[in-house]
Structures are given as C-alpha cells and as structure tokens.
Amino acid sequence: MNDQIDSSVPLLKHYEDVGQRSRRVQTMLKVMEEVKQLLAIALPMILTGLMVYGKSMISTMFMGRLGRDALAGGSLSIAVANITGYSVIYGLATGMEAISSQAYGANQLPIIGQTLRRTILILLITAIPISVFWLHVKPVLILCGQEPRVADFAAIHLRACIPTLLLKCFIHPLRIYSRTQHRTLPLMLSAAVALLIHTPINCILQFKLKLGITGIALAVGITDFNLVIVLVLAIRYSGAHRDSWGGWSLQCFKQWGPILKLAVPSCVWVCLEWWWYELMIILAGLFPYRATEAVGTMGVLVQATSLMYIFPSSLSMAVSTRVGNELGANQPCKAKFSSLVALTCSVFTGIGAMIFMMTLRDVWGRAFTSDHTVVALTALALPVVGLCELGNCPQTIACGVLKGSARPKLGAHINLGSFYGVGLPVVGMLCFVMKVGFVGFWYGLLAAQIVCAILMIVTLVNTNWEAEGERARELLGVEEYNQVPHQTWEVVVQP
C-alpha cells in the first residue's frame, strides 16, 4: 500500500505543475487581452496627441524666429494662459470623464449627451472672467517682476489667445464625449486637419500680413476653429451621437450639481500639476542672472516634457475609460485588473522617455532657437528631465485610474502635497538659496514626481474596488446595472 501511495506522488506533482502552468498561461492571456484593449484606445490618442503637439511646436518655432524677447514673451504668455485659463477649462472638462465612461459601461447613453451639453455651458461661463483678466494682464506681469519688454510681448500674445480659450470650451468636452464611447477616429481626423493647415496659416499671418507675435496666437485660434468644425462633423457622420446626443433644451441649464461636484476638484487637481510647470517659467524670469535666457529655455524644455507626456497621458486616458466602463458595468474586479496592467505598462513607458531625453540632449534646443545660451542650458537640464519621467509616467497612469473611478479630490490632495509641499521648497532651496543654478528647477520636479508616484501607487493598492462599484451606481443614479451589449473585454475602436 505504501509503495502504491509513494509511486503516485510524482504523478500528483506533475498534475499540480500542469495546473500552475495552465493558470499562468490564462493570466498571461488575460494580460495580453487587456493590453490590447488599452492600446485600442491609447494608440489613436497617441497619434492625436502627436498631431496636436506638432501644432504647438510649429507655433514655438515661428515664435523663436522672432527673436529672444519674443520667445521669452511668448513663453511667458503661454505660461499665464495655462495657469489662468487653459488649465481651468481643461480641468473642469475632465469632470465629465468619470460620468461619461461609467454611463457608457452601464449602457446609460443619454447621460453622456446630457453631461456634454452642461459641461460646455459651464466652461463658456467660466471663460468670461478669464478673458477679461487677459485683456488687462500687462500691469500684473510687471508687478510680479517680469522685464517690461518681455511683459509687453506676453500681453500682446495673450490678448490674441482669447479666441483659442473660447474654442477650448468645445474642444475638450467633445474629445471626452467621443473617447469615452471608444470613438477615436473623429479625434484623429480633426487633429490631422488642424496640423495640415497650421503651417500655411502661420506663414500667411507672419510673412504676408506681418502680424508678428499676434499672428502666432491668431493662427492657433483659426486652426482650432477648423478643428471644432471637423470634430463635430466627424462625430456626426461616425454615428457617435446617435444614441447619446439628445439635443439642446432648457434642461441643459439644470442639474449642474453632480457635474460640478466632480468638475471643481478635477479642476483643482489638474491646475495644481499644470501650474507647477508654468510657475517654473515665471520663477525663471526672477532668476538672478540671464533671466531672459532662463525663461526661453523653460519654454523649450516644456516642449520636451509636453512631447513625452503624450504617451503616458494617452495610456492614462485609456485606463480611465476602461476603469470607468468596468465600474459602470458593475465589474470592479476587471477595473482593478485593468489598472494593474496599465501601471505595469507605465514603467516601460518611463524608461523609454528617459532614454529619449538623454539621447537628444545636444540637439533638442537647436530645433527651437539659435541662441547659444538657451541651447547650452537645454542640454544641461534634459538628463534630469529624463529622470523625472520615471516618476511622471506611473503617476500619470495612476491619475487616470482615479479619474475613471471618480476620485478627483484624492488626486488633488496628492498633487498639492507632492508638488507644493515637496517640489516647490526643493526648487527654492536649490535655485535661490544654494545657487545650484538653472538645473535646480528640474531637481525640484524630480522630487515632486517621485513622491507623487509613490502616493498614487499606495492609494491604488489600498483601493476597495467593490466599494468603488457601489459609488459608480450612486453617481449614475441607476437602480440596477444593465449588462452592456458590447462585450467589455473586447473593446473595438469603431469608425
């Protein structure tokens, strides 16, 4: 009897090994399927982001050819526009993201259209006081210690940016509306048209009409106007509006409470991070030596970080949509799985971004300006900027998970502590006390990104996903979840 039992042990162990291998294979297949679904959203968003970035880079290059003061003034203007306007509009718009993605997952499509219309109205009302401030910004810049010549260029450019501000009140909500329904073709098509026409418009305004820095800002507005038209037409003919739009009515002016409860903390969250980068440009203008070159270099480096940000932000949008869809469909385990897969992908994204930054350290600055000081400062700072991406990519993806699960207040608290409780004091100490120099700004960012990534990951590890599923039900006001007719494990990008 004992001999028989002993002889069966290897066989039992063999079956156990086979079972373990089978489970590992099944897990890997699920991981690959989730990666496929994330990329189905992220890749089109990356292409869209690259085209939008191309438009921004074209504007910066035209600005750099106008001279050192114009480059510094334009960079300062963009910083002020981001701090006081663009970040606010984008932040408020992201308040509709959780509602829209969860409504799609719960098959409550009319909620998506209602949210879009109300969000557009909220943004347009918000843009009015911002526009008034932009019209009278020059005394404020001089009061803050900016050089008069640079402040003059910045004020001229900022006034011409008001049409762009108003157009963004439509662009951001329409993009979220389309993406949360997995319709990415309208986003790519509109961005492609905008990129194609942006250079000719700049050439006409610069070389034919001689509008200078005003022409650069107006070119962005004209391009964005065409972008809105193409985006609306693409959404219309792709059928993305068919079951969700509903049309305008007086009801659009009611029941703003649920949106504002998410939009306001989302705005604070976005602004805290955006403001950091723009605050660095303003602080560079207070640098004790070569302030003009420091501001210009900041503008060039922000272009580099903006390019790299396209990749983690696209993955962040994808995981936000996936998490929101699964929570809306009452599948919290799938939402958790999607977040873990996306976080793993973010590590490789960060490594790739770091290598890119370090490789191009000696050539990046020359693409934007011929000023030798700006080029040298850019080459000095880019390796540190590359290290920042190791923290930026994971924390950006974690931000997407929090957005998809409708937790903007938590994200705002983490950003406040990381960027302003850690990063800003480090910048002040290194740049203005220890006199480390220009690179001290980026060591401060590195400290902030590391702390932010750690706090975000700890938060996600301790998330109660079953409770998040219940919160999604309460947010949508749905008594019973409907099973989504489109299979949530097989997201397809539809034309």
Automatic annotation (TrEMBL):
- Which residues are listed as membrane-spanning? 38-58, 70-93, 119-136, 156-174, 186-207, 213-235, 256-277, 297-319, 340-360, 372-393, 414-435, 441-461
Q: Which domain of life is it from?
A: Eukaryota
In the UniProt record, which is one GO cellular component term?
membrane
Q: How does it sit in the membrane?
A: Multi-pass membrane protein
The record ties this protein, via CDD domains, to: MATE_eukaryotic (cd13132)
Report the record's Gene Ontology biological process terms. Answer: xenobiotic detoxification by transmembrane export across the plasma membrane
- GO terms assigned for molecular function: antiporter activity; xenobiotic transmembrane transporter activity
InterPro entries the UniProt entry points to: MATE_euk (IPR045069), MATE_fam (IPR002528)
Q: Where in the cell is it found?
A: Membrane
Key words, A-Z: Membrane, Transmembrane, Transmembrane helix
Q: Which Pfam families match?
A: MatE
Would you identify the family this protein belongs to, as annotated? Belongs to the multi antimicrobial extrusion (MATE) (TC 2.A.66.1) family.
UniProt-listed PANTHER family? MULTIDRUG RESISTANCE PROTEIN (PTHR11206)
Protein's recorded name: Protein DETOXIFICATION
UniProt organism field? Lithospermum erythrorhizon
Which lineage ranks, top first, belong to the organism behind this chain?
Answer: Eukaryota, Viridiplantae, Streptophyta, Embryophyta, Tracheophyta
